[in-house]
């Protein structure tokens, strides 16, 4: 459509295009800006509506592509392959995710560019350089320019563009949220529990035999594991990292903490072997002070006083396992740890 097809009353007035001329006194005169050439959208509302619908269509396609991304992620098997000419065989899930994600991003960008180039104001404005420190007048001008730009963007008037753009921008981040599923299954409550339960025997880590009270001498340090956990089990490392136990026998009179005494058996106390700082195994025991030391960062715990932290970066005491003796005279657990073992984590109650 040419300007001849536009009614005269819709044609903008011509702007004065005075241009400075260079002469001997001023060889570098400012030539000024060339005359502004109006776009068809500036003088014909029908063309502006067509551009508006085009931008809205691009934003709508972006929304559909985001929905397609989520649907592909949920429904397409990860091991399915397809043939795409001329590329060849591809993983169907990767192809669908890449195609829909690329389309969603492209349509948002293309819609924004088309909106700016056809509907927003494109007049060039000359402005003088100013000092870095903004004067009150400058701040007022900036706010006025911002309001003018907001007005010229026609965001309030072009409701179709505004609503579809907001829809595309609101839906697109869902792609990233869905991808969080690949971080792995939620831990649930498994970080709070170990293999220890009521009736589980305490098995010596070295001899692989159940422990009797007589096997634990005063001042000795013994490491134990739950009954039924074997080194050849495929999940041995994961389970022992939570269930590893250290057993120390103290004189009952040396135990300062009442709960520790109640949860022990004839001075035999059982504590988690996993340091509450970063999860290193504790292996150093001092008989005279009843202190255990983590070799990684020197966190020190007092086993005669509820395994509280007396030195180092550990944040809390070692969890204690309540123990007793069964009818056959073997040491057994009377339940699981009352709190999560190892370093503190966000679910700790």
SSE arrangement:
Elements: H1 40-43, H2 45-75, E1 81-84, E2 88-91, H3 92-118, H4 136-152, H5 159-171, H6 174-179, E3 202-204, E4 221-226, H7 236-243, E5 245-249, H8 258-262, E6 268-272, E7 284-286, E8 291-293, E9 300-302, E10 308-311, E11 320-321, E12 323-325, E13 331-333
Antiparallel strand pairs: 1-2, 3-4, 4-5, 5-6, 6-11, 7-8, 8-9, 9-10, 12-13
Can you describe what's shown?
With 349 residues, this protein is α+β, with helices and mostly antiparallel strands. Helix content is 32%, strand content 14%. The protein contains eight helices and 13 strands. The strands form four sheets. Strands 3-4-5-6-11 form a five-stranded antiparallel β-sheet. The longest helix has 31 residues, at 45-75.
Give a brief rundown of this model.
The chain is an alpha+beta fold. The chain is 32% helix and 14% strand. The longest helix has 31 residues, at 45-75.
> Main sheet?
5 strands, antiparallel
The chain-level structural class is: alpha+beta
Q: Specify Rg, calculated over alpha carbons.
A: 37 Å
User: What fraction, in percent, of the residue positions are helical?
Assistant: 25-40%
> What are the secondary-structure elements, in order, as H or E?
HHEEHHHHEEHEHEEEEEEEE
How many H/I helices?
8
Tell how many strands the DSSP assignment holds. Answer: 13
Major beta sheet, strand line-up:
3-4-5-6-11
Shape descriptor reads elongated
Q: Estimate what percentage of residues fall within beta strands.
A: 5-15%
Average pLDDT taken over every residue: 86
Low-confidence stretches: none
N- to C-terminal distance: 71 Å
């Amino acid at each position: 459509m040419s300007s001849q097809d536009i009614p005269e009353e819709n044609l903008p007035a011509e702007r004065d295009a005075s241009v400075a001329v260079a002469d001997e006194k001023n060889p570098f005169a400012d030539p000024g800006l060339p005359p502004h050439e109006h776009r068809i959208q500036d003088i014909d509302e029908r063309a502006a509506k067509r551009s508006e619908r085009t931008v809205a269509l691009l934003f709508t396609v972006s929304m559909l592509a985001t929905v397609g991304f989520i649907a592909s992620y949920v429904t397409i098997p990860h091991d399915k392959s397809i043939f795409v000419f001329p590329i060849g065989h591809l993983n169907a899930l990767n192809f669908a995710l890449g195609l829909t994600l690329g389309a969603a991003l492209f349509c948002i960008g293309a819609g924004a560019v088309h909106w700016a180039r056809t509907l927003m104001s494109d007049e060039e404005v000359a402005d003088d350089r100013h000092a870095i420190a903004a004067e009150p007048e400058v701040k007022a001008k900036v706010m006025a320019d911002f309001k003018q730009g907001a007005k010229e963007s026609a965001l309030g008037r072009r409701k179709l563009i505004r609503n579809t753009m907001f829809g595309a921008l609101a839906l697109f981040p869902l792609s990233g949220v869905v991808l969080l599923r690949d971080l792995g299954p939620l831990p649930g409550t498994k970080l709070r529990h170990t293999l220890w339960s009521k009736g589980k025997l305490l098995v010596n880590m070295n001899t692989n035999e159940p422990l009797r009270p007589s096997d634990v001498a005063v001042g000795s340090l013994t490491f134990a594991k739950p009954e039924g956990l074997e080194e050849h089990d495929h999940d041995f490392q994961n389970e022992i990292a939570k269930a590893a136990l250290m057993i120390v026998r103290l004189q009952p009179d040396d135990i300062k903490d009442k709960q520790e005494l109640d949860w022990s058996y004839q001075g035999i106390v059982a504590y988690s072997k996993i340091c509450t700082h970063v999860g290193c195994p504790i292996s150093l025991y001092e008989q005279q002070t009843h202190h255990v030391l983590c070799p990684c960062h020197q966190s020190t715990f007092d086993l005669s006083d509820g395994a509280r932290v007396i030195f180092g970066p550990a944040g809390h005491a070692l969890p204690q396992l309540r123990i007793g003796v069964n009818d056959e005279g073997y040491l057994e657990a009377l339940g699981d740890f009352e709190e999560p073992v190892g370093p503190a984590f966000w679910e700790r109650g």
